[in-house]
Amino acid sequence: MKLAFLGLGVMGYPMAGHLAKAGHAVTVYNRTRSKAEAWVKEHGGAFRATPAEAAEGAAIVLMCVGNDDDVRSVATGEQGALAGMAAGAILVDHTSASAQVARELEKAATARRLGFLDAPVSGGQAGAQNGKLTIMVGGSDAIFRTAEPVMRHYGQAVTLMGPAGSGQLTKMVNQIMIAGLVQGLSEGLNFAIRAGLDAKLAAEVIGKGAAQSWQLDNRAKTMIDGKFDFGFAVDWMRKDLSIALAEARRNQAALPVAALVDQFYQRVQERRGGRWDTSSLIDLLARP
């Protein structure tokens, strides 16, 4: 299948790579041209100077960029993807963005006789590299069934959640839950250390019981060691939480813990930890 992938960051680069390895003809676009050139050197395919040019002739155009403004620019700008897509093609947005922008894109795509899916992902850089992302999708069933096999090249779970915007709303639920989990994990591990326990052994034991979680399994040891120079950055988490908190103000959902943890992440940023992994919340307790 002829595909396009727009945005070659820490997530998009390996995701597009999985499509090329599966035998698809992939054309890429990235704002920084050198990254697109490096991707083509590694995976083949081609790169283009604008999203519109990359999208020309593609049956499915996939994108993973930064925020709502980036989504609008790359998709609906004068040289955006929609301008280069032929009727019947599908745009899949893997960016973690607002439900509002997803609905805007669906409306814009429909006006051009194009399909659209909002499909944010969870699993971090490791999930993208290993092809084991969880993908939460919003859009119509017919469009989803066409695009699902393509997304399965890097998604271990690809689920249609409802109409446009539903994928983004589900990603917000994901980030709300992670915020609380990481704070609880930080407090528990810091308590174990200060109580004189072997914190790594405690984490191993607890991981076999009701407190088990992905965060405990994958982050406890590095948290105890104070290592945060990897993973899902605090800056990105704050962006996602700001989207969730804004949506909560609209739907009147109470998010007291998420709001508090967002403030904690702001303090991590003030420690110049904006690019640290989200598990760096423990640093505020280890070095108050």
CATH superfamily of the largest domain: NAD(P)-binding Rossmann-like Domain
Cα distance spanning the termini: 54 Å
Sheet having the most strands: 6 strands, parallel
- Topology-level CATH name of the largest domain: Rossmann fold
The total tally of domains equals 2
User: Mean pLDDT, nearest integer?
Assistant: 97
Q: Report the CATH C-level class of the largest domain.
A: Alpha Beta
Count of alpha and pi helical runs: 14
Explained architecture:
The protein is an alpha/beta fold and 288 residues long. It folds into 2 domains: 2-162, NAD(P)-binding Rossmann-like Domain (Rossmann fold), CATH 3.40.50.720; 169-286, N-(1-d-carboxylethyl)-l-norvaline Dehydrogenase, domain 2 (Orthogonal Bundle). Helices cover 55% and strands 14% of the residues. It is built from 14 helices and 9 strands. The chain has helices at residues 12-21, 33-43, 51-55, 68-76, 81-84, 99-111, 124-130, 141-151, 166-194, 199-206, 214-225, 234-251, 256-270, 281-286; strands spanning 2-6, 25-29, 46-47, 60-63, 90-93, 115-118, 121-122, 133-138, 155-162. The strands form 2 sheets. The protein has a 6-stranded parallel sheet, sandwiched between helices. A 3-stranded mixed sheet has the order 7-8-9. Helix 8 links the parallel strand 8 (133-138) and strand 9. Helix 1 (12-21) runs parallel beside helix 7 (124-130). The longest helix has 29 residues, at 166-194. It is globular. The model has no long low-confidence stretch (mean pLDDT 97).
